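Example record

The entry below shows one chain as it appears in the dataset: sequence first, then structure tokens.
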Amino acid sequence: MLDWLGREGDELRMAFGRVFDRRQRPFGNRPSRVGGVSDGNEGVQWNAAYDPRNGRRWIGVNLEGLKYASWPIARLISRELRDPTLPQFIGDATDPARAEILWKRDYWQVASRPPILEGNISPTPILLQRLTEQAWREALEQARDCLEQTKSGWKRAKQEVTLARSGQRVLGDVSPHLTLIYPDDGTLPWEDFFIEAKQMMQPYYDWVAERSA
């Protein structure tokens, strides 16, 4: 598990287990270099990752565009479009100045998700403290367009996208993917960083859980 990350991967896994007390599901691969673990929860997740190319480390509050129990990400998008609460919540919460929000467009080839040039949904990634109501709505509308509502519920939408590695234009299934990211400033051991990040991001984890429930 994460063997290409060497000692950093081992320390990441051990610290994640101690601080979050969760099961671990690895992600990433040697060609992409980036690797990490998530708790694998079917809904909002904690995850942690490391990029050995630049030493970047981060904790994420993560909600993928997967069906789970009737598409929790669709519930969050629909509720926030009707009644946006995140910008005000950010203003009321203790604001972690380094934290970002990122909406991504995942392109699916069977079970894999190859990178695409249209991966980031604008205007994200953006610092939480700079997220305006207008920017939030703009991102939400694009995220909603990555899903299609049918008589029986939601499903992935079809969009034309550009494969990052080949430049080929393809038509295929896409889904939205929300992550709130707390990066390390590079000064703390893994476990201390995870303790700090969990304290700072727990309110946002709870917000995502509530809005997607």
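Notes for this example: DSSP finds five helices and nine strands in the chain. Strands lie at 25-28, 35-38, 45-51, 56-63, 100-107, 126-127, 147-150, 153-162, 169-183.
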